[in-house]
TrEMBL record:
NCBIfam families: iron-sulfur cluster assembly accessory protein. It comes from Haloprofundus marisrubri. This is Heme biosynthesis protein HemY. GO terms for molecular function: 2 iron, 2 sulfur cluster binding; 4 iron, 4 sulfur cluster binding; iron ion binding. PANTHER family: IRON-SULFUR CLUSTER ASSEMBLY 2 HOMOLOG, MITOCHONDRIAL. It comes from the Archaea.
């Protein structure tokens, strides 16, 4: 996997597979965003039956305290509060006959809800 830190941070909070980066870049471009500056924000929020859930959105640019990494041409933004929950995670894109979407493999998860939408660390 091609991973380089944009902000000089030695710790990479999230790694992104080539398929996830390709899909996200396609969506970013479809929104008319500049992929040299804009990126995908991955964050953790309160919610779900297990207590925490993942969130993703496109941002025009990172916040000043974000960890910013680049993977296969995709910029990823992670805020400091979310880093402690998702450090070491892998963002992947899965497509199949029944469903397609982004999936976070998080080594910090100790339990997930039955539907897989929320987790606890």
């Amino acid at each position: 996997m091609s991973t380089e830190s944009v902000d000089g941070d030695a710790e990479t909070p999230v790694t992104v597979t080539e398929s996830a980066a390709s899909e996200a870049l396609s969506l970013l471009e479809g929104e008319g965003l500049d992929t040299d500056v804009a990126g995908l924000r991955l964050f953790v929020q309160q919610g779900g039956c297990a207590g925490l859930s993942y969130g993703m959105r496109f941002d025009d640019e990172p916040e000043s305290d974000d960890a910013v990494t680049e993977h296969h041409g995709l910029r990823i933004f992670v805020d400091p509060a979310s880093r402690r929950y998702i450090g070491g995670s892998v963002l992947d894109y899965e497509s199949g006959l029944q469903a397609a979407g982004f999936h976070v493999e998080n080594p910090n998860v100790v339990s997930e809800c039955g539907c897989g939408e929320s987790f606890r660390t």
